[in-house]
Structure formats: structure tokens, C-alpha cells
Amino acid sequence: MRFSYLLYIAVILMLAITCTHDPVIPEDVPENNPMDTTMNPVDTTGNNCDTSIVYFENDILPIFQSNCAFSPCHDAGTQQSNLDLSNYNGIMTEITPSNLQESDIYERITEDDPDKLMPRIVGQSVGQMLDDEKIRLIEKWILQGANNNRCDECDTSSISFANDILPIFVSSCNTNSNCHGTGSVRPIWDNHQIIINNLNKIQVRAIERTHSSPMPPSGPLPNCDISQLKAWINDGAQNN
After folding, report:
1. What percent of the chain has a predicted confidence (pLDDT) above 90?
2. pTM (2 decimals)?
3. 146 near 100, Cβ under 8 Å?
4. pLDDT band at 29 (very low <50, low <70, confident <90, very high)
5. By CB distance 3.0 to 4.6 Å, which of 57, 146, 160, 164 could disulfide with 150?
6. 3-class state of residue 232 by DSSP
């Protein structure tokens, strides 16, 4: 009788042991959930620049800031025709992604009729055609989906006046007769010597923006432009 009881206890213990399982641990569990829940396929904070991509903050916004988004035209304060072209959301009210024909802004900047052409020459009722490079950038950006993207990569290791510095002044300063463009009473910053002659003014107004009338009036230059200007000046402001 005692033997049967001991045998019964032994069987119960064996069943308990065989029914005890180690927890199942899946292999290669990622530290973070790889699923993208943002519903936004556009990388707006990437550091790597792709030369085949047109970036809104780097390439497109400066065009609108220097040619459209200033008083008395389409800045946040004036909003002529209820249109604010100083930011992505305002610009997108006139853009249909991937469709040039349905994008009113593209139609206006390529208009043959000077009375309809944009941007307007300040103080006049006719427009002034953007240079071909700017138009092609806007065109390519729209066809790529008009994304709100940017590229934070900025090369300041080898700055060239012709390739890096002069284009900053062309796109952000020499835009029309109300600024430093053709017909302006102000210096037209289109060559090395004129820029050198005005370097102190450029330093306090455009780079440091400590002057009471900072430039450009539409807002600060892109960070990369400022970094490249500083690097060029620190390297002796060469005509290279």
C-alpha cells in the first residue's frame, strides 16, 4: 500500500516536470518597431543629400522668399491676393503635386503674357521671368511630388566663389530692381570686387543679421548658405 502511494507521488511529479515549458523567445527581435506609422513617405530630416532630388527647404523655398514672399507681395503680413508664399503650406495652395498643368504657380512663372507673368516687378503691373535654372528647379520639384523635404548636408570644406558664393547672391539678393537686381540703385552683387567692397555690410546684415535692416528682408538665408559664406570669408574671401 505504501509502495503504491509512493508510485502515485512519483507519477504526479514527473507530469509536473514534463508539462513545465520554458518561455518561447523569438529570434532576432528588433529593438524598435520597424513599421512606419507616420503615413508620410518623405524623409524631412535626412542628412544625406541626393543630387537627383530637389529639396523644398534647400532649393525651392529660397526662390519664393527672394522673389515673392516680401512686402508688398506675398509675405505673411501682406498676403496679396490672399496668398502667402513664405512657407510650404501657403505655396501648396497653388501646387498640384506631380502635375504641372494643374499647378497655378508654375503656370504663372512660365506665362507668355507679361501682364500675367509672376513674379511682378515691384511698383509695376508687369511680371519678370525667373531665370531658367529656377524654373527648372520648381518644375522638377513639382514632378517629384512637391514634397516638404530638406537636406541637412552642407559641404564647407572647399568653397568656390564662382560655384558656391556668387549663386547665393544671385538667388537671394540680385532678384529684382527693388533689391540688388538689374536697374537697382543699390549695388548689384554680381562680381567678386563689388561683394568684397560691401563685405562688412553683408556680414552684419545678411550673416549676423544684427543690423536694424537685416537682409534679405523676407527672412534669413538658409543655414548652409550662411555656413558657406562664413567659411569663404574665413578662408580669405578668395576669387576662386
Report:
1. 35
2. 0.55
3. no
4. very low
5. 57
6. helix
One-letter amino acid at 9 equals I
Mean pLDDT (whole number) for 67-95: 84
Please state, in angstroms and as integers, the Cα–Cα distance from residue 38 to each residue in 33, 70, 177, 232, following that order: 12, 33, 44, 39
| Sign of the four-CA dihedral 154, 134, 218, 145 | negative
Classify 127 as helix, strand or coil: strand
The predicted structure's pLDDT at residue 11: 46
Cis-peptide into 62, omega within 30 deg: no
Cell of 153: 548636408
Which residues touch 174 (CB under 8 Å, ≥6 apart)?
180, 181, 182, 188, 189, 190
pLDDT digits (tens, 9 = 90+) for 171-202: 788 877 778 877 788 888 889 999 999 999 99
Reference 74, options 61, 90, 60, 85; nearest CA is 85
What cell was used for 183? 536697374
Asked if 227 and 233 count as a contact pair (C-beta separation under 8 A), the reply is no
